């Protein structure tokens, strides 16, 4: 049994029993999950008939028929084909096959898979009372396989899982996933009214009937950076609508936090962020990936959070009587207050995921190594990691740190597990950079390889950023404000908060609450003292404040480089030309600001610039360019940024 430094629930390693008993007996055991209000699930074919005959879908079919001039029978047939392409065909035999094969694979890949059993008990109760929606974090393809494996292990109802159409290109495997509960959706619906109607009615029918827990990823796709992505609200809107319309009494939303000590796709993510095309999902690619079975991926934690009642959340925020004015089967665009409520709920759920992420010692080591790009003495790294551990716990980290083991042993164990990213030589620890023997590399190739190393390490550092980002924003604001007056410090904080609201999970409209939270945390660790109108830094907290400022440095520097390249270097800046990539490599490499090369940071920075009306998007031939509107944001960022090497805007 594992206990974490900051106790929430106790964890149990579900692989321990698997290592000591028959996998075949486990896969073929009696499986009798408790269901929603004791209902017997209908067959997949019956579910399709319910969807196709629903008043809601029939209404849209008649609309589409009138708009396109086709007969209703032809549109009905098209809807049936769309549903056939989309729908799952859950079969217990396939589940048993996966239970057997995944048991074999997980025992090789992971030292342990730890689950909070209290969360499982809460989920078991919730499934029997109201429709349940499972909302896991998404860092790996392994997530949805592990979720179903865990629910099967604990004899819980297996979820139906929203999956991208990419998997359909995998012969045999795609159909196996369909038979294990996956239903497939297109990445983009465009203006396809019929597809949207079929999809939404399919999901709502499963939810209304308590067919099975519905599972999807709020972030929409895997995070390549280790940070949580801005939530997508389309599916969340769909699963909440039956409650808004009074078709169900309540809906339980269950955030699930999945934490990896080492990510299986870590070698791919950094290259994808640098523009290397993502490998296409295929059965042959899956077979080639068998080599990962020779690697050690450490431990994994899955934390099932408290079920969140939509009914409780909506009380006092949503007036459901507005839905009585229109027949239920007629599609309605969500009102502004409803959309705002769904958006706020999405951010709240992602924050709950973040707060329950189990952090390993390696994330602290990664953070320190990135702040010291020339390497660190092992003794210094160990000492600073221990200091950072104490600070993280003060801030409320959910940290898995081995009890009764000296810090030096913990750090050494982390370095061994991540030997592909770091090396220890002569008592000094530094990042590993791929340098093919006998090959002469150009400056840009060396910058690219260095960027791969930095971004790979940053994906682990980013796992803990949610803990430090608000205090870090305040630390930089304190450093740059013209006075100690609270209102001036808040103005600086608010500016940074707005700039980085695409980069981190900062709930819209919550700048004041985040400022108060940051003040509380810095006061708690003794870094500041709050007076009536002033915020004063304490001498004893200078080390903490300096560290927190350095947490934001890569982002301040990265945004400044992106601003310069996109606005000043090119009259028509387009982030997808070879020339532009060359310029990025040159500038980022010379400044050692490798995180500016990340497509994720570039996307977030440009989104912030457009939102703050610093640039505007202009269509030019078949590409899009960004033209500057004013230089105010640049001058502000220059003030906040602390480059190790001078960087001057023209």
Automatic annotation (TrEMBL):
GO CC, alphabetical? mitochondrial membrane; peroxisomal membrane
Keyword Transcription among UniProt keywords: no
One GO molecular-function entry: glycerol-3-phosphate O-acyltransferase activity
Q: Which InterPro entries match?
A: GPAT/DHAPAT, GPAT/DHAPAT_C, GPAT/DHAPAT_LPLAT, Plipid/glycerol_acylTrfase
Q: Where is the Phospholipid/glycerol acyltransferase domain?
A: 132-261
> Which cell locations does it reside in?
Membrane
What is the name of the protein in this document?
A: Glyceronephosphate O-acyltransferase
